[in-house]
Specification:
It holds the Pfam family Peptidase_S51. The structure is a single chain. The chain has a single domain, classed as Class I glutamine amidotransferase (GATase) domain (Rossmann fold). It is built from seven helices and ten strands. It has helices at 13-23, 48-55, 83-92, 103-113, 115-118, 132-135, 179-187; strands spanning 2-6, 31-35, 69-72, 95-98, 126-130, 164-166, 193-196, 200-205, 208-213, 217-219. The strands form two sheets. The chain has a seven-stranded mixed beta sheet with strand order 3-2-4-5-1-8-9, with helices on both faces. Strands 6-7-10 form a three-stranded mixed beta sheet, covered by helices on one side.
């Protein structure tokens, strides 16, 4: 897949330009499926969060960018739906918009639903992650970001990319997410890792990583 792993959605013109480049056509000509699932899994989850994401009233721009169409793909519902039906929805979409929330809860349902298994067969689909929706594509999240605990334990995510992400760097709502904290986190993460702020995204195509930023970030 073509990946745009954001901290806080499409927050600036540089990130939006990267998105359009990945799509290969204007947003207004592109169909989207939004995946709200991660928003239900966190310790501070509430039903308003997924609604704001779906309705485009979140402070993290994703669904409100002017898409040709937007649908909702709720991963917890997929095991009870005929696979051929929902797989067709995914294959027809130009982009998947994946909500933030709890990374390991999202990882669990991406596997349980069958979406994780489907992703490698979608080379032309653009995947846009928001916070947990980005971190789920990494090998590990680190103990600091374990909220919902998977049945097997641990902090492993999908490992689609070979780097980890420390999100919300120096965000006022996350006072513990300092650069010093990111350095301590990175020291116990095997492999490369990025700390990114809300004005930063990671664009991944063909295994190459490009940092798209109008803010602050660091590669460890």
């Amino acid at each position: 897949m073509k990946l745009l792993l954001t901290d806080s959605g499409v927050k600036n013109a540089s990130i939006q330009d990267a998105l359009v480049d990945l799509l290969g056509k204007p947003i207004a000509e592109s169909s989207a499926l939004c995946i709200p699932t991660a928003g239900y899994g966190g310790p501070y989850a509430d039903p308003g969060g997924p609604w704001r994401f779906i309705s485009g009233r979140s402070p993290s721009p994703m669904t409100e960018l002017g898409w040709k169409s937007v649908g909702v793909l709720e991963l917890t519902a997929l095991p009870s739906i005929e696979a051929a039906l929902w797989v067709s929805w995914v294959r027809e979409a130009d982009v998947l918009l994946v909500n933030g929330g709890d990374t390991l809860y999202l990882c669990h349902w991406m596997r349980e639903s069958g979406l994780a298994e489907l992703l490698p067969s979608l080379p032309d689909t653009v995947y846009v992650g928001l916070s947990a929706g980005s971190c789920v594509m990494t090998p590990r999240v680190g103990e600091e970001f374990v909220g919902w605990k998977p049945p097997a334990g641990g902090d492993s995510a999908l490992g689609v990319v070979d780097f980890s992400i420390f999100p919300h760097l120096d965000h006022p709502d996350c006072p513990d997410n300092t650069m010093a904290a990111a350095e301590r986190w990175a020291a116990q993460i095997a492999g490369p890792a990025y700390a990114i702020d809300e004005q930063t995204a990671l664009k991944v195509t063909g295994g190459a990583v490009e940092v798209v930023s109008e803010g602050n970030w660091k590669l460890f």
